[in-house]
Design brief:
Helix content: 25-40%
CATH architecture of the largest domain: 3-Layer(aba) Sandwich
CATH class of the largest domain: Alpha Beta
Structural class: alpha/beta
Strand content: 15-25%
Number of domains: 3
Largest sheet: 8 strands, mixed
Bound molecules: zinc ion
Distance between the termini: 46 Å
């Protein structure tokens, strides 16, 4: 069992409860610290979900500035100097070419990346194309090699050069803890790229949908240096509502087509309001921010607390 997990990944795997080393036998992985045993599923997946309750303490600092003054939540443009060329590869659902243009390139042939909430591992191809050993990770998926909980990542500190987490954060019961965990297992200068629902309807047991300020706050809380937080331009509240919730059973494309007249009128109305008032709260940037179905984010783990930068 566990042959589908590369040796270099075994080296960084730890007990999700106590962080102890795992000793591997033919059919279990046993923690050398707390002695908890982790089994393989029928499909050969290593099940590193917690076996018992774990205490996790967070400390909040109150009285700090509430709003990220000066940070520009603009729409993501293509990176003019991308590290990886994805020409010819299919862009997975939920991702955009703009977001992929910020993917890092593996620093060496030992580089590992983690896809938190990988589902059916649709990001494997593009991550391997960027030179990484791909580690799929999910709480409940038949296709991931490792099952686990994003609140208790079963990996040692500073393990991954790149973490991806697409449309997952809204499903996390305690997002501040997941952010701390992602920060912990990311290597210094490693990149964390993801997306989170904002004005999507409730779906798949979603807990906390994030506004741009929400995602800024949770990334900053964990210690990340934030490069970008951007609205998803083609996926606004109307389209998300129509596609996911308004007409159950109707094909997505047809649902989105039906909402288009209202969507066009919405866009026209904002333009008209801006032409008359020139006020920021009816501008195109504000329309995108306040109506977005989801947000993308790009952040980096810096060893020391460096001043916030908004690179362009
Ligand atoms: Zn343990």
């Amino acid at each position: 069992m566990g042959e589908n997990i590369p040796k270099r990944v075994w080296k960084i795997m730890r007990c999700p409860l106590c962080g102890g080393l795992l000793s591997r036998t033919a059919d279990i992985a046993k923690c050398t610290g707390c002695s908890d045993e982790y089994n393989f599923s029928d499909k050969g997946q290593l099940d590193l979900r917690l076996r018992r309750k774990k205490q996790y303490q967070l400390q909040f600092e109150l009285g700090a500035e509430l709003l990220p003054n000066g940070f520009d939540f603009k729409t993501l443009q293509k990176n003019p100097t991308p590290e990886v060329d994805f020409t010819g590869l299919k862009t997975p659902w939920h991702l955009t070419e703009e977001l992929m243009s910020y993917f890092p390139k593996a620093r060496s042939n030992e580089s590992i990346m983690l896809d938190i909430g990988c589902g059916s591992t649709v990001h494997r191809e593009i991550c391997e194309h960027a030179g990484f050993s791909y580690v799929g990770f999910d709480y409940n998926s038949s296709e991931t090699p490792i099952l686990g909980d994003a609140h208790a990542l079963p990996f040692k500190d500073n393990s991954f050069e790149f973490i991806l987490s697409i449309a997952v954060l809204e499903h996390i019961q305690n997002p501040f803890i997941m952010m701390k965990e992602a920060y912990r297992v990311l290597k210094p200068d490693g990149r964390f790229i993801g997306s989170v629902a904002f004005l999507e309807p409730f779906h798949g047991n979603s807990f906390y949908h994030h506004s741009h300020l929400g995602i800024f706050n949770s990334l900053k809380f964990a210690g990340f240096e934030i490069q970008r937080i951007s609205p998803s331009p083609g996926w606004n509240a109307l389209i998300a509502e129509a596609s996911m919730c308004l007409f159950p059973g109707l094909p997505h494309r047809l649902s989105e087509f039906l909402i288009q007249p209202l969507n066009l009128f919405h866009r026209f109305w904002w333009r008209l309001a801006y032409a008359i008032t020139h006020a920021y709260n009816v501008s195109e940037s504000y329309r995108l921010l306040s109506n977005s179905g989801a947000f993308y984010f790009i952040a980096t783990k810096k060893e020391k607390n460096t001043p916030l930068k908004n690179t362009s």
